[in-house]
Amino acid sequence: EAAVTQSPRNKVTVTGGNVTLSCRQTNSHNYMYWYRQDTGHGLRLIHYSYGAGNLQIGDVPDGYKATRTTQEDFFLLLELASPSQTSLYFCASSDRESGNTLYFGEGSRLIVV
Amino acid sequence: LAKTTQPPSMEAYEGQEVNVSCSHTNIATSEYIYWYRQVPHQGPQFIIQGYKDYVVNEVASLFISADRKLSTLSLPWVSLRDAAVYYCIVTGANSGTYQRFGTGTKLQVVP
């Protein structure tokens, strides 16, 4: 079974704070993604990567950085968190061999106060 | 913007067959149709994928119209566990084409 693990699962930070969300996949997939989910908007893609050192911009990248340090690890960075970034964040991985099917983690809930 | 249009919500009784429709009028010849579902407090989970005609697996079946502009996900004998948000997505089957999610169809199952 494909596995995508996110941490932390829950995080509260203050406005202007620095937050790092971590994602590790053990699927040997090349592609990894960060989505945010908000009521009324569904899932929106922030950043994605097709391999270590690579970063691609998604649909809502403003205020976010990301780094792909290895094939397994993809990090989402909020260097100056704002209340508008309060959301549920999902990481996913995919690969051509799996038919581009997305495998999601269980989510990281971030609250910025 | 998402490339698909789905009804925002549906309701069904336990034991009924449920058909969730999805319109993708601008689907490209290289694109496939994927369906995912998401239950509260979990990430979306893949259900089924198809290109044309009819696809079936142990969970659901997928019918795709001849012009590929409409697909219908069929869930036989729904139970309370099938209450979820169902997402239809069109994208290429090759990696490098990221998948945009719309707001999906929220299925409520009534006992």
Compact summary:
Chain A is mainly beta and 113 residues long. Chain A contains no helices and 11 strands. In chain A, 0% of the residues lie in helices and 51% in strands.
Q: What does this 3D model show about the protein?
A:
- The complex is a heterodimer of chains A (113) and B (111).
- Chain A is 0% helix and 51% strand.
- By secondary structure, chain A is mainly β.
- Chain A has one domain: Immunoglobulins (Immunoglobulin-like), CATH 2.60.40.10.
- In chain A, strands 2, 4, 5, 6, 9, 10 and 11 form a seven-stranded mixed β-sheet that branches. In chain A, strands 1-3-8-7 form a four-stranded antiparallel β-sheet, with no helix packed on it.
- In chain A, 35% of the residues are buried.
- With 111 residues, chain B is mainly β.
- Chain B has a single domain (9-110), classed as Immunoglobulin-like.
- Helices cover 0% and strands 48% of the residues of chain B.
- Chain B contains no helices and nine strands.
- In chain B, strands 1-9-8-3-4 form a five-stranded mixed β-sheet, with no helix packed on it.
- The A-B interface holds A 4, 30-31, 33, 35, 40-45, 48, 50, 56, 58-59, 90, 92, 94-96, 99-107 and B 2, 32, 34, 36, 41-46, 49, 87, 91-104.
